[in-house]
Amino acid sequence: MKLYFAPKACSLSPHIIMRELGLEFELIRINNKTKKTAEGGNFLEVNPKGYVAALELDNGEVLTEGPAIVQYLADLVPEANLAPSNGTWERVRLQEWLSFITSEIHGGSGPLFSDEIPEDVKDIFKKKLFKRFDFIVNTLEHQDYLIGTYSVADPYLYTVLTWMPNFSIDIKDWPVLHRYMQRIEVREAVQAAISAEAETDPV
Ligand SMILES: N[C@@H](CCC(=O)N[C@@H](CS)C(=O)NCC(=O)O)C(=O)O
């Protein structure tokens, strides 16, 4: 398997999961501006949508969209318990969280990366994001992880929360979220993924 990634981007989430599961894979860095891959190829030929993450399977199939990728990976090693079994209510709850993270937190922070959006407009997006943070806090006040046990939803939320300093948002203002991030950050797979991405050469 090959994981196409850009350092510190949302591709960190499936990257962490692959390490949590002990899977063998090749990491291929891409340049998100030029869409060149570290192999010298055109990333648009891998994922015509032009964004990471993209997972290329050994049979040549390419899977995109973070929530789909992490569920596919978790199901490869069910005994690791990173996702409840398909067809169970608990799995639907996991999908509910993945959808929430992808649309409300990941998608919700997208405009904050823009150089073209004025600060006062960004403040409107931030306000909405903060409401979503409060909702997450309501859950994490009572349990360590989103579905109760550590699952593929947690490295995804962790990854998008690492972006907040870029927007002058201090996650320490939500102590429950801050402690949650610390819990995830100390995991061996998380540290290994962060280091491996940092050690790759720019494309
Ligand atoms: N819907 C996609 C969004 C992926 C996404 O936003 N990728 C960003 C990095 S976090 C990216 O590569 N952006 C570059 C671009 O859109 O050109 C998913 O959830 O996987």
From TrEMBL:
Record's Gene3D superfamilies? Answer: 1.20.1050.10, Glutaredoxin (3.40.30.10)
Q: Which residues form the GST N-terminal domain?
A: 1-81
A Pfam family reported for this protein in Swiss-Prot or TrEMBL: GST_C
Domain GST C-terminal: residue ranges: 87-203
Name of the protein: Gst
